[in-house]
């Protein structure tokens, strides 16, 4: 469901791998009975039209059912824990011109990427609270 990398791609305004996330949330939030029924009905193919018509914009994410929101929230927290520093530490480093200049070009670019990723994840936390 998630693809080879096992990750979802989030943008500022929407989920870029929305079909994968939508199906994953749907399946993970099903009861065992619902899952068996869904699988028996070949539900994987039947929902393609429904999935095409629904985009996972930020607005749509905030309207998800509570179990899906909780699952996303907990997943985002786990992802944020995997980073070495928190968002505030990254922001402080970006704002500290002396410390920033001491970083190599590669370290500066990595800092910008991590900071952007964390901001998107924090935004997602707010949407699904």
Automatic annotation (TrEMBL):
Residues 38-58 are annotated as: Disordered. Its main location: nucleus. One of its GO terms (biological process) is methylation. Residues 43-53 have a biased composition (Acidic residues). GO terms for cellular component: nucleus. The keyword S-adenosyl-L-methionine applies. This is N-lysine methyltransferase SETD6. The lineage of its organism: Eukaryota, Metazoa, Chordata, Craniata, Vertebrata. The gene is Setd6.
């Amino acid at each position: 469901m998630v693809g080879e990398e096992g990750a979802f791609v989030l943008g500022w305004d929407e989920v870029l791998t929305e079909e994968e996330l939508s199906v994953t949330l749907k399946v993970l939030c099903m009861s065992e009975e619902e899952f068996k029924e869904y699988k028996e009905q070949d539900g994987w193919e039947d929902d393609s039209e429904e999935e095409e018509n629904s985009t996972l914009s930020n607005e749509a994410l905030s309207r998800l059912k509570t179990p899906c929101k909780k699952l996303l929230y907990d997943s985002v927290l786990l992802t944020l824990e995997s980073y070495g520093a928190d968002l505030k530490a990254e922001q402080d480093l970006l704002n500290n011109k002396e410390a920033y200049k001491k970083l190599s070009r590669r370290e500066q670019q990595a800092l910008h990427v991590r900071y952007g990723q964390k901001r998107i994840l924090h935004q997602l936390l707010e949407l699904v609270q």
